[in-house]
Write a structure and sequence with these properties.
about 80 residues; mainly alpha; Non-ribosomal Peptide Synthetase Peptidyl Carrier Protein, Chain A; 3 helices; PP-bd_ACP; ligase activity; EC 6.1.1.13; ligase; D-alanine--poly(Phosphoribitol) ligase subunit 2
Length: about 80
Amino acid sequence: MNELIEILSGICSGEGFENSEDLIADGFLDSLDIVQVSAELENNFDIEITPVDVTRDNFKSVNSIYEMIKRLEQE
């Protein structure tokens, strides 16, 4: 989780994203940020994020991103 927060802190605009329940609606992530986050996650966690995985639900919060990473690591 710490590695994920470190990645997001370099991309998310503003402070307090860790507690956000909706990173997109709260303005912490936009579509270009999600592409960048996806690339960073693939490199750092040795996972493949496909277009099917790039959903609002998967990128809604730090916890939802973390759950997606854990799921993809199992595949």
